């Protein structure tokens, strides 16, 4: 199945800007004009030879009119045989490439918002897109009309020197409606931007849960919510479950109760709902599936599913697990939105994931496999190859007057371990600032964690939930913060099975030395960095290992 997708992706080539360097910063002159140039004084000739600022071609073209009246003589052409007019001894305007509107990426150095009428369109991004609080500043990027969301994320990762772990996403954000959704990798950014208002914007941030359902489908599709039109006995294996969603000839469906908001009103009704490839339906008679009892709630073809980021009070929602189906033609009309509420986070994720699978089908699987295929291809070319000299290396013992080759493998292994212990002791003696003082080491361990991206200081419980929700509720997503109830303690916030849990990290004393522990002193650590590194490798008392740090990186 994987081999059929190898040739489906064509990466968007990133063009680099080039500006022609003109002699003395002057724009090209027509040959006829320079032929009749008047002689100038010696003072003018001296001024003309002064160093001048080299301007871009576009700037020079805008100022071309004022330079046309200048009395400066023509600049001699050092290569007259290369000019278009063979008889022209000077550089004419036809010798330089014209500045045409293109699809090159342009970063606005002043962070100003401009309009552009060329082929490319400017898109606005949050300057700190993956931070919890947006500061209103933005970056303007000019992109070609055929650029996809994946290509734009790759470009932003490159421009902002981010780690390319295939977890970055472009988020469509509507502050007036309180809605967000991650763009699919194959979507054209310009087409999505065309349906957005001036207040809407794109956010650039991480989303680890985008394709997590391909890895752990059973966590996303509870057995009681998945059914086939042809009733089958027994449970459906995970591989068959995803194939049913991806295969357009099959007809699976998601079923269950949802709170549905009435159009134009604040009242909600609890209905039994069915999600199929043809649309979202509700039953007018209990849980009946008969066609005469089903009514259409929303169409999948011309709509997208969004997460509602506003509180419950705004829409008088019965639960916190809200989502919305927004028609593409809707801009700011709240009354045209189909607001829905699930009972819990798992069921909400199931409905939203199934909506994406029914709408895009096999395209989602192709988007999921492309980074893996690229990674495999790059690892094939970048795999280190041992040279002949490396293969001929042997273990040596230099403890005596002369060195000797260690032939015994057991002795060679013990020598390597001994050298490793000696190196570790030397590195422990030399701390970061070069001071061996134990007082300095203890004070450093109390603040060194604040330099880590996974530590967020005095972050509240609600804000930590919001950050994890933004970057995806996947197993192992975590962050650390100061405890609000105990000023001398810390809190580990961890996501497991789409539920967010909090674990308090307490101080414990032993032999006059302070340690940090998650399990009442059974496992002790001198600082939070050691604690995180331990639970990255070991589950311990936690429900799962620490895997994805929830970070806020300013772009």
Describe the structure.
The structure is a single chain. This protein is an alpha+beta fold. The protein folds into 4 domains: 26-95, no CATH class; 121-206, Phosphatidylinositol 3-kinase Catalytic Subunit, Chain A, domain 1 (Ubiquitin-like (UB roll), Roll), CATH 3.10.20.90; 216-360, Roll (PH-domain like), CATH 2.30.29; 443-549, SHC Adaptor Protein, CATH 3.30.505.10. The protein has helices spanning 31-35, 42-48, 57-62, 64-68, 149-159, 189-194, 212-215, 217-220, 238-246, 312-315, 345-360, 362-382, 388-391, 409-429, 438-445, 461-471, 528-537, and strands at 121-126, 138-143, 168-174, 179-182, 201-206, 226-228, 252-261, 268-276, 279-283, 294-298, 303-308, 322-327, 338-341, 396-397, 404-405, 477-482, 490-496, 499-510, 513-517, 524-525, 548-549. A hairpin with a 4-residue loop joins strand 3 (168-174) and strand 4. The longest helix has 21 residues, at 362-382. The relative contact order is 0.08. Mean pLDDT is 72; it is low at 1-47, 52-58, 64-74, 78-123, 126-136 and 429-441.
Quick overview of this protein structure:
This protein is of the alpha+beta class and 555 residues long.
Can you give the mean pLDDT?
Answer: 72
Q: Give the CATH topology of the largest domain.
A: PH-domain like
Question: How many runs of DSSP E, i.e. beta strands?
Answer: 21
Shape: globular
